[in-house]
Design goal:
The protein is an alpha/beta fold and 357 residues long. The protein is built from 12 helices and 14 strands. Strands 2-10-9-8-5-3-4 form a 7-stranded mixed sheet, sandwiched between helices. A 3-stranded antiparallel sheet has the order 11-12-14.
Length: 357
């Protein structure tokens, strides 16, 4: 199968080979050295401050979204949550479950947040902002500089879910004054799912260490303390952490995160250029490099995704719920090439000849 989903994505052969190996014991100096280097590289790729820390949490991206929220916010806060799709809704659900006060900014599918909209919430007591850098369910890349400016004006703590967009779109944690950034192993890192990653500024670490999080497994105080010795408080997904190490070292050798971002951007632009005459609409004017959200003009999205899977052995990303009737998504992460883009586009052209699109 050729995989154009947004995660898990296709992995390079050297990552697959690590997955075949026996899992080593991890309470060792050797594994600690791997974890120290994982932290160093993640901070470098995120352009985090020298005093920043990194937590590698065994769990999906949602685990880190929840951990980030409950370790720095509580009932005394008032959060602004940008909700333009399934993953913005996830932040809303986390706030609701943990009874953290919030205001929800609801956006239509593919709509971006504007500076004018944000000004409506100036001087309203907002203490924190939760936003997905890319709302993966619709592909929109939000105006993070505008959100950062809002946070700076209002003294608000900024938590960003960069799970899909990290390394696909330019990101500078320090310049954007981001307090917490979240990403995952199965996106541009192109490793198996199972590890989510939280990068915390020095300010965020200080906040975590004085906050009384009502949890055990997701308590970041324990994770930060164990990280000082290159370890995790509980048994981690050891194999995936070794794969992440190999992947980040390869990116470093190839020239760093900027080279990887350029590669993904070029793949996305190539795909979008090849489909410009096909009966699809890209539903946002600000798509992330990680994914192209397509609204078919002639057939149901589910019909197209199923035929691609069953007859052409190509996976693209369907959507759930109401969005499933509107669009499907083509990812540009992982071990993909221009030739792979052409294979998918030729499948679309064949579907067009058959009257399916």
């Amino acid at each position: 199968m050729l995989n154009f989903t947004v995660g898990p994505v296709q992995a390079e052969s050297y990552i697959q080979e690590i997955g075949y190996e026996q899992i080593p014991y991890f309470r060792t100096p050797e594994f600690s050295e791997i974890m120290f280097e994982n932290e160093r590289l993640m901070k470098r790729f995120a352009k985090a401050e020298p005093e920043a820390r990194v937590v590698f949490l065994t769990g999906s991206g949602t685990a880190s979204m929840e951990a980030a929220v409950i370790n720095v916010f509580d009932s005394t806060d008032k959060l602004l949550v940008i909700n333009g799709g399934s993953f913005g809704q996830r932040f809303v659900d986390i706030c609701r479950i943990h009874r953290i006060p919030y205001i929800e900014v609801q956006l239509a599918a593919g709509e971006n947040i504007t500076r004018e909209q944000l000004r409506n919430y100036d001087d309203s007591g907002i203490t924190g902002v939760l936003v997905n850098v890319c709302e993966t369910s619709t592909g929109v890349r939000y105006d993070l500089p505008a959100i950062s400016e809002f946070c700076c004006r209002n003294g608000a703590f900024l938590v960003v879910d960069a799970i899909s967009s990290f390394m696909a779109d330019p990101f500078d944690m320090q310049k954007l004054n981001v307090d917490i950034m979240i990403t995952g192993s199965q996106k541009a890192l192109a490793c198996p799912p199972g590890i989510s990653i939280i990068v915390l500024s020095e300010k965020a670490c200080e906040r975590v260490n004085v906050h009384n999080a009502q949890c055990l497994y997701l308590d970041l105080k324990i994770a930060l303390k164990n990280g000082e010795r290159g370890q995790t408080p509980f048994t981690p997904a050891v194999g995936i952490l070794r794969q992440i190490h190999a992947r980040m070292k390869a990116i470093e050798r190839a020239g760093g995160v900027e080279i990887e971002t350029k590669r993904i951007r070029t793949l996305a632009y190539d795909f979008r250029k090849q489909i410009k005459d096909l009966p699809f609409e890209i539903i946002t004017t600000t798509p992330s490099n990680c994914v192209t959200p397509l609204r078919p003009l002639t057939n149901e999205p589910s019909v197209i995704t199923e035929i691609l899977k069953k007859e052409y052995e190509i996976w693209v990303c369907p959507n759930g719920g109401e969005l499933g009737k509107l669009l499907f998504r083509v990812g540009h992460l992982g071990a993909l090439s221009f030739a792979d883009n052409t294979v998918l586009v030729n499948a679309f052209k064949d579907l067009q000849k058959r009257g399916i699109i």
